[in-house]
Specification:
The chain is of the alpha+beta class and 432 residues long. The chain contains eleven helices and eight strands. The protein is 57% helix and 12% strand.
Length: 432
């Protein structure tokens, strides 16, 4: 999920607030509290921040939003901020300044907006800046700007152990912040992509339901007209046979439209104890003789326990897999559907039951195996493939608490395996 470039404006607004906070803190520290003996460098740094933030604001207004320009702009702003913040802390006793950990905010922002290695590059840059300043101060190669904090010995330079401890705490905080933020960002990206896929499926389901409804309405009128025609030609056996064949065809179309409407209707999957072999047999009856000539379907159904699933949803998945298997064998072949116990149940948890749908078709290249479950990805676009079937299958199997696996060899065939958990009880549970 890419964050909107328009949201970069708030970074400039936050920087204006930081400028105001810097001037206020410097004034309080030098005039009111008396802990800052030399406020001039901090006032200078505040003026520098005002200058470059004004420049960033002008550039932001003139910039045409573009993904590459946006990333570079955010990266540049954060790099300048890190350099400026390091100087501000240097001029206010960096080793003892509690605001040292303000670097974390830039690590979070960088991890949210930037991708790839950029957030870790920023973490390394911040670590080198702070570590370099601390080292140079410890070696007395640069002057120090101590704070007159209560109980602090300002004339004493921090010892090696003190500097090392502060730097270690700072560095680990920065790197852990980047690591966890990038991990959360990647998780949100995956969740957002899954949500988009489900939204596509819902939209397509609504579209299909509407089309089926539009088909069903004229079918009713056509069937009524055909009955009237049948009454007029009942004395002609040949015409009566044609009318009967047309009526049967219209009934099949109506049944298909009804199934499509029922399939597209939003509903939760009802998880219950399901006989997987019965689901296979019902699917084969539904498939009937729809498969092409030269294709043979074999079954090897073992005595397997019931699974935790939805029988109608399981039939939809198996029907899709069987249809794909038939289409993968343009020159004919054998489709084998087998059920087996994959993992036996144990006291610590239920086992799993698998259904294998194997064809002897053309196979799937390895480079395509990772993409076949993506919505709208298809290798049969010329034959009318939409790329929705396998993505829907994976989603439905996942909602039943299972998983779908695939193994394929080019030129030898493909095996899709649906794995479901064994049923523990026969109590029906509504899955939303």
């Amino acid at each position: 999920m890419k964050l909107s470039p328009e949201g970069a404006g708030w970074l400039i607004v936050l920087r204006w607030l930081a400028c105001a906070g810097l001037f206020l803190a410097t004034w309080l520290g030098s005039t009111v509290l008396g802990i800052l003996p030399d406020p001039l460098p901090l006032y200078v740094m505040g003026a520098v921040m005002v200058g470059y933030n004004g420049l960033f604001q002008i550039l932001e207004r003139r910039r045409r939003v573009g993904e590459g320009d946006f990333d570079r702009g955010i990266l540049l702003q954060i790099v300048v901020d890190l350099f400026c913040l390091t100087l501000i802390l240097y001029f206010s006793d960096i080793s003892r300044n509690p605001f040292l950990f303000y670097f974390v905010f830039h690590m979070i922002i960088g991890s949210m907006y930037l991708h790839g290695r950029a957030p870790f590059v920023l973490a390394g840059f911040a670590t080198l800046l702070v570590g370099g300043v601390m080292l140079l101060e410890y070696l007395a190669w640069i002057p120090t700007f101590p704070l007159y904090l209560t109980g602090a010995d300002v004339d004493r330079r921090p010892g090696a152990l003190e500097v090392l401890g502060v730097f270690t705490a700072f560095a680990t905080t920065v790197w852990f912040t980047v690591y966890f933020t990038t991990k959360i960002h990647k998780y949100i990206d995956r969740a957002h992509e899954d949500l988009r896929q489900k939204e596509k499926m819902v939209g397509i389901g609504q579209l299909v339901a509407g089309i089926a409804h539009q088909i069903a309405n004229p079918l009713d009128g056509s069937q009524n007209c055909l009955r009237r025609i049948g009454e007029g030609v009942k004395d002609d056996p040949r015409l009566s046979e044609y009318v009967q064949m047309m009526d049967e065809a219209l009934r099949r179309i109506e049944a298909t439209a009804t199934r499509v409407q029922a399939f597209a209707r939003p509903r939760g999957i009802e998880l219950t104890s399901t006989d997987i072999n019965e689901a296979v047999e019902a699917t084969l009856k539904l498939l009937g003789s729809a498969h092409r000539v030269g294709v043979k379907i074999e079954t090897h159904l073992s005595d397997v326990p019931a699974v935790h699933g939805d029988p109608y949803t399981l039939q939809e998945v198996l029907f899709n897999l069987l249809t794909n298997a038939v289409l993968a064998m343009p020159d004919g072949g054998t489709v084998t559907i087998a059920s087996r116990v994959q993992e036996k149940s144990s006291p610590s948890g239920s086992g799993t039951v698998a259904v294998d749908v194997t064809d002897t078709g053309v196979g799937i290249p390895a480079v395509q195996l990772e993409k076949i479950f993506e919505p709208f990805y298809t290798t049969r676009s010329d034959a009318g493939g939409t790329g929705l079937g396998l993505g829907l299958c994976r989603m439905l199997v996942s909602e039943m608490g299972g998983r779908i696996e695939v193994a394929s060899t080019v030129g030898r065939g493909t095996t899709f395996t649906v794995v479901l958990n064994q049923a523990k009880t026969r109590r029906t549970v509504n899955a939303e």
